[in-house]
Specification:
Chain B: One of its GO terms (biological process) is sulfate assimilation. Chain B: ATP binds at residues 466-473. Chain B: It comes from Mizugakiibacter sediminis. The structure holds 2 protein chains of 2 kinds. Chain A has 2 domains: 12-198 and 295-303, HUPs (Rossmann fold, 3-Layer(aba) Sandwich), CATH 3.40.50; 211-290, no CATH class. The N and C termini of chain A lie far apart (41 Å). Chain A is globular, with a radius of gyration of 20 Å. The longest helix of chain A has 25 residues, at 106-130. Chain A has 8 helices and 10 strands. Chain A is of the alpha/beta class. In chain A, the strands form 2 sheets. A 6-stranded mixed sheet of chain A has the order 3-2-1-4-6-5. By secondary structure, chain B is of the alpha/beta class. In chain B, strands 7, 8, 9, 11, 12, 13, 15 and 16 form an 8-stranded antiparallel sheet that branches. Chain B has a 6-stranded mixed sheet with strand order 2-3-1-4-5-6, sandwiched between helices. At the A-B interface, helix 1, helix 2, helix 6 and helix 7 of A face helix 1, helix 3, helix 5, strand 2 and helix 6 of B.
């Protein structure tokens, strides 16, 4: 009972930070060829920050990989390249060229086909091409129901499949990293963080994030109940649709045609956190892909989605 | 919107409050249908932690899969896998996050079915408190006892017994008190110091977040009040500093750091440390924390240490306070929860991971398994899925440790199957066994090389494996005759013959087959040590035992000979009439009939007896053995 006068008092964020660093070091030590899946969003920004801390003063022994669907917000790509240059990390970018040749896109093929070809299949291509045996992602258990069930070290078959009914037991922080040739593990160091923890940590540590998280006047159209930003000329407007300038921001970032904005006046990090504390909807609400059949995240994850 | 200094100050105050807020990690467990998921859903709902879109999805799902008519089915909030929603059961542990002004909570909702006990253990291993549910109509069940035992195994000191569905027993006080008395006695017997019993109804919300007027006779706190206020001890045990090294950080020749999370105690720059199991000493030169250099590091922090001297420290070593070091041992008494689909067999080799170290290990003895329903200690030669036992454990190299009751990081371990790589057991170290320290190796001047030289041969072990009747003994016999005629010193260990003597006490169950092979492998090793060419002719059906045998020998000393004869052919030959008797049900556990044969994946030599006759195959083997001859060897 707090006879631990010797122990320092660690705050909740300190404990989460230490746990994530521990996980990243286990990955570096146990795998032959690990990679960090960098998606440019706030969770990836936190992961990159933790990665730099975990191996200081050395450069991180783990490279970054971005799966570029070619439909990301332009500001995301600019931010990605700037952060890679500033931190000096090894960043690799993979695009499903076959999908590009076939002209796959969210407007022509719909959200499901686009996400499968340009994201899930592209990810599998990249993992196979580089022979990565561990892929670190920023998913959190508070995001979605099937993610709430996933292990921190989540085993994948040689076909990249997740078997949610037969996960390896995971006791304490003793992560079992043993796999056979061709098999791999997805690792989620932010499993125990909540959305609020992520924002508070960004605030405490002054971590740079993509400006799209902050409110600004942006051209949007209202489509199927979501505010979609017209980020480039590839977006076909429907009859009667004209982009309007609205004060909006994004709670999550993905492909711009599939990511709904929210009307907001929160221009600063402090205002974003305050808005979060009073919101009445969860962060994935803006993701068009999640509104496919109800358990779609689980199915996509089984097939290799992150 | 611009942020005024006042609002900025208010947010900063909030951050400090959030940071300062305590966090409790707990699990909910208990038998299936006792209403765990419903209780948690109710907690999330009543603490207003559900977002509007989640509530809308819940209303939609309740109509489709729900079991509560038009009302919200809270269980659907947690049963996130499709199979779970369809079957209405919880398969795997789900993590949920909620909080009140007093505390933040991470709760792991654990499955109730016995077959998913290993998933429940996953949740329990990181929990500080457990909420065990029982149905007021059914009382304490086998699974209640099992889960409580596992909570005790993993060192959970605080348990809440939530007697649920009180609405279905008319809020009957005597019913609650009878269950509470039975459970309190059980918890006490298992060494759980703090067991609090609360009568409630998750469905109706009685005593969940607020005290219920329908049970005025109950004077204790509601569940949420208890969770907010219960005092849990964070760290226990000694205060001596311990850090298992995860990663040796060497960006250049000028820096050598040891990265890891402090498992216990605290350390300051300049303090004297010892690196175990090696035992070399030095002083702390620098402590590098997440934000730069520190003067002091303490339990829970992820740091990188540099030392005043250059020591050879590797991943898995433990850096400890030199004045109060932990013990180092390779033989232990432990408690074990078996989670493998195939049974645990004593003597079979597994990987053991403790801290940042992975070593080879075997369970040398199951002292007894435990009937979780009665706590009775039962004799056992194997452990099946979800069984718990007290065992003796032998590691192939020593490790620094603390008893689990003192420190979870240095006393908790997992076992990993060497073939499937599955996590097959979770265990806790109780104490070191001294036996190993008292049996010393006797040093002998004449060694294996000397004994081999005087015989003018290179000793080795030819390990014949294959089905009964495949031709192992026939070929081994021909090989030995030929080698003997050429003047070599040989010996055949034959399965049938050894079972008449050394292994007379063993039968044909899986565990006896493992022991059979272990003894023969050890005898073969002694004979190779004596300089002989040993021919072992045993069915040896399991890969893991052949691997264990191989591990006893030096590089190039062990040749696995797969006598590859199809089952149909063996059965046609049936030289001893055994297949006929096995088919007639007169022999059980017969390899190839009702006991498996695992063919070698990469044998040194494969002999196909249907393609060549025994003499020619024997000749091939003789040539292979003699090709190992040193250059000065005689003519073959």
């Amino acid at each position: 009972m707090s006879i631990q006068t010797e122990a320092l008092r660690l705050s909740q964020l300190d404990r989460l930070e230490a746990e994530s660093i521990h996980i990243l070091r286990e990955v570096a030590a146990e795998f032959r060829n690990p990679v960090l899946l960098y998606s440019i969003g706030k969770d990836s920004s936190v992961l990159l920050h933790l990665l730099l801390k975990a191996f200081r003063p050395a450069r991180p022994p783990i490279p970054l990989l971005h799966i570029d669907t070619t439909w990301k917000f332009r500001e995301m790509i600019a931010f990605r390249d700037r952060r890679a240059a500033e931190t000096g990390v090894d960043l690799r970018v993979h695009i499903n060229e076959e999908g590009v040749r076939q002209g796959i896109g969210p407007f022509t093929h719909g959200a499901t086909v686009h996400t499968d070809v340009m994201k899930t299949q592209a990810l599998k291509q990249a993992l196979d091409k580089y022979g990565f045996d561990a892929a670190i992602g920023g998913a959190r258990r508070d995001e979605e129901k099937s993610r709430a069930k996933e292990r921190i070290f989540s085993f994948r078959s040689a076909q990249h499949r997740w078997d949610p009914r037969n996960q390896r037991p995971e006791l304490w922080n003793l992560y079992n990293a043993r796999i056979r040739q061709g098999e791999s593990v997805r690792v989620f160091p932010l499993s125990n963080w909540t959305e609020l923890d992520v924002w508070l940590y960004i605030w405490r540590e002054k971590i740079p994030v993509v400006p799209l998280y902050f409110a600004a006047e942006r051209p949007v159209v209202e489509r199927d109940g979501a505010l979609i930003m017209v980020d480039d000329e590839r977006m076909p407007l429907r009859p009667g649709e004209t982009p309007m300038l609205k004060r909006v921001r994004f709670r999550t970032l993905g492909c711009y045609p599939l990511t709904g904005a929210i009307e907001s006046a929160a221009e600063t990090l402090e205002a974003v956190i305050e808005e979060m504390l009073t919101t009445r909807s969860s962060e994935r609400q803006g993701r068009v892909i999640d509104h496919d059949p109800s358990a779609s995240m689980e199915r996509k994850k089984q097939e290799g989605y992150f | 919107m611009t942020v005024t200094p006042e609002r900025h100050a208010a947010l900063a105050a909030y951050l400090r409050k959030h940071e300062g807020r305590d966090q409790l990690r707990f699990i909910t467990c208990g038998s299936v249908d006792d209403g765990k998921s419903t209780l948690l859903g109710r907690l999330l709902y009543d603490t207003k932690l559900l977002f509007d879109d989640q509530l809308a999805a819940l209303a939609r799902d309740s109509k489709r899969h729900g079991t509560q008519g038009d009302a919200l089915d809270f269980a659907l909030l947690l049963d996130g896998l499709e199979a779970e929603r369809e079957q209405g059961i919880t398969i795997d542990v789900a993590y949920r996050f909620f909080g009140t002004d007093k505390r933040g909570f991470i709760v792991a909702d654990c499955p109730g079915h016995e077959q998913y006990t290993r998933n429940m253990a996953t949740g329990a291993s990181t929990a500080e408190l457990a909420v065990v549910l029982v149905d007021a109509r059914k009382g304490v069940l086998t699974q209640t006892r099992r889960h409580t035992w596992i909570c005790a195994l993993f060192g959970i000191r605080h348990v809440v017994l939530a007697v649920n569905k009180m609405d279905l027993v008319d809020y009957d006080r005597s019913r609650f008190e009878a269950i509470a008395a039975e459970y309190t006695a059980l918890a006490y017997a298992l060494g759980i110091a703090d067991a609090t019993c609360i009568p409630l109804s998750a469905l109706c919300g009685d005593n969940v977040t607020a005290r219920s007027p329908r049970m005025p006779w109950y004077e204790g706190p509601s569940l949420l009040e208890h969770l907010e206020t219960v005092r849990v001890e964070r760290a226990t045990g000694g205060t001596g500093f311990r850090l298992p090294v995860q990663w040796v950080n060497r960006p250049d020749h000028g820096f050598r750091g040891y990265a890891g999370t402090v498992a216990q105690g605290r350390i300051a720059v300049g303090a004297e440390i010892v690196a175990l199991p090696g035992g070399r000493r030095s002083r702390i030169a620098r402590i590098i924390g997440p934000d730069g250099d520190l003067e002091v590091a303490a339990a829970g922090q992820a740091v990188t240490l540099t030392l005043a001297d250059e020591l050879d420290i590797a991943r898995g070593d433990v850096i400890a306070d030199a004045a109060h070091p932990p013990q180092v041992a390779d033989q232990f008494a432990c408690r074990l929860l078996w989670m493998g689909d195939a049974p645990l067999l004593p003597g079979r080799p597994y990987w053991l991971k403790i801290g940042a170290r992975t070593v080879g290990a075997q369970v040398t003895e199951i002292r007894h398994k435990i009937d979780v329903n009665t706590q009775a200690e039962l004799a056992a030669k194997r452990l099946e899925l979800n069984e718990v036992a007290q065992c003796n454990l032998s590691l192939d190299q020593p490790v620094a440790f603390e008893p689990y009751a003192e420190n979870r990081t240095l006393g908790g371990f997992i076992l990993i199957d060497r073939q499937s790589n599955a996590t097959v057991a979770g265990g806790t170290l109780d104490f070191a066994l001294r036996r190993a320290g008292n049996v010393h190796w006797q040093h002998i001047d004449v060694d294996k090389a000397a004994r081999a030289t005087i015989k003018g041969q290179k000793p080795c072990c030819l390990w014949f494996t294959g089905l009964s009747g495949s031709g192992k003994s026939t070929i081994a016999n021909l090989v030995e005759r030929r080698l003997h005629a050429l003047g070599y010193h040989t010996y055949i260990l034959d399965g049938d013959n050894v079972r008449h003597g050394l292994n007379r006490d063993l039968g044909f169950t899986d565990e006896d087959r493992v022991e059979n092979i272990r003894r023969v492998a050890e005898v073969a090793k002694l004979m190779v040590d004596a300089g002989l060419i040993v021919l072992v002719s045993f069915i040896s059906p399991f890969r893991s035992e052949r691997r264990m045998a191989r591990a006893l020998f030096g590089e190039g000393e062990f040749l696995e000979v797969f006598v590859d004869t199809p089952l149909a052919e063996c059965e046609r030959r049936d030289p001893k009439g055994l297949y006929r008797r096995a088919r007639a049900g007169q022999i059980s556990n017969f390899t190839g009939i009702d006991s498996p044969y695992e063919a070698p994946e990469a044998p040194e030599i494969t002999l196909r007896t249907v393609e060549a006759e025994a003499g020619a195959l024997a000749q091939r083997l003789v040539e292979r053995v003699l090709s190992f001859e040193p250059a000065h060897g005689r003519e073959a």
